[in-house]
Amino acid sequence: MTRNTQLLCLALLATCALGACNNRYQAFPRAVTFAGVEQSVARSAAHWNLMAANEAALISAAFESPPMLYIAQTDTTDSPFEQAYHRLLSAQLVASGANVMLNPGTAALQLDYDIMVVSHDNGRSLRPRPGFFSAAFAIAAIAGNVPNWEDNSLAIVPLALGLDVLNDLWRDTRATMSEVIVTTTLHNGDQLLRSDARIYYVRDADLVNYQSRGKTFTVVGS
Predict the structure, then answer these.
(1) Using a CB cutoff of 8 Å and minimum separation of 24, what contacts does 211-216 make?
(2) Which of 10, 93, 103, 114 has its CA 20 to 30 A from that of 25?
(3) Average pLDDT for residues 15-36, to the nearest whole number?
């Protein structure tokens, strides 16, 4: 087989491969990954307070005049997050000018919130942020050229800065992550007036803060 024949065969194979890739007729939809988005990681009670502050601001902005709200009460079987979120949301609503009522009979609207924990079987962990490998190669290049510097001690400065950058790009990648969906609803009994859902990453080690403790029943013998 001549060289020209070989090149012609390779060209035909490449054309067939490209045609197969661009085939518009398939038995099932092609999987397409969503565009990259940012999602906050809740790691402390201070983050819970920020979540409550954001929600309170959105609720207050939805009404021309301060609404009269009653927030559904929690009990000891609710998760630590639910109990803390009730207090934080109440405080943030009052701070934003809303009227938080203690008696549901005196309130025009009731505010409820629901917590849903989403766990992933594959033990999901976050990938390093974009730029991690570029920074790693840059550090390696600097370290490899240290002998060529007139003053080797000065190399500690860019190397230290590079390690700080790596640490920032690598953060949150060591712990496996689950997700928490916090849904807040506002209704007047018969009509749902507002609903808002926010999704946050949480470390698997912190899931106990989002899981209900379950009800305990005491059995009394007859």
Answers:
(1) 211/79, 211/117, 212/77, 212/78, 212/79, 212/82, 213/76, 213/77, 213/78, 213/79, 214/77, 215/77, 216/77
(2) 10
(3) 68
Determine the 3-state secondary structure of 109 from DSSP. Answer: strand
What pLDDT digit, counting tens, does each position of 101-143 carry?
999 999 999 999 999 998 876 655 566 666 666 666 676 766 6
pLDDT number for residue 83: 95
Q: If one looks up domain 45-124+174-208 in CATH, what number appears?
A: 3.40.50
Q: What is the pLDDT of residues 160-175, one digit of tens each?
A: 676 666 666 666 555 6
Q: ∠206-83-186 over CA atoms, to 5°? A: 110
Higher pLDDT, 14 or 211: 211
Which one, of 116, 172, 110, 162, lies nearest residue 139 by Cα?
Answer: 162
